[in-house]
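Why do we care about 3D structure at all? Because function follows from shape, and shape follows, mostly, from sequence. That is the central idea of this module. The next example makes it concrete: a single protein chain, its amino acid sequence, and then its structure expressed as tokens.
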Amino acid sequence: MRGVRFVALYRRHFSDHHRERLFLASLTFFVTFGATRLMTHAFRPPGHSFTGVWVGGIHVHHLVWGILLLLGVGYWSIARGGTTIDRSAIQSGQILAVLYGVGAALTLDEFALWLNLKDVYWERKGRRSIEAAVLFGGLEWAWV
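And the structure:
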């Protein structure tokens, strides 16, 4: 019964699909940013078996996956732009919003890396990533 009430409340509050997409993007941004920070701190202790993703001897930072997601979302948005508003367009808009939030969080979590052009994640300069994410997240949330 609670689930039905929640869905009804959600639908009433987000009857405007544009506003719903903004909410989904913001929510997934904050959740992904928090989860990424928690995971990187959890995997930091020496001797932990997880050391990130390596391809051909190169550590692939999670900002790479974020950039790829943002590129894909951007292209998909352009490709579907101007389509009619039917159920499939609404669903793809929701999916794009979620993927955008994830990609933005993964990218901004390593903002200090692209600002300094070196891995400063665990250094004082790494705080710039948190500052950038808070600034972006606050601006993003203001639109909702």
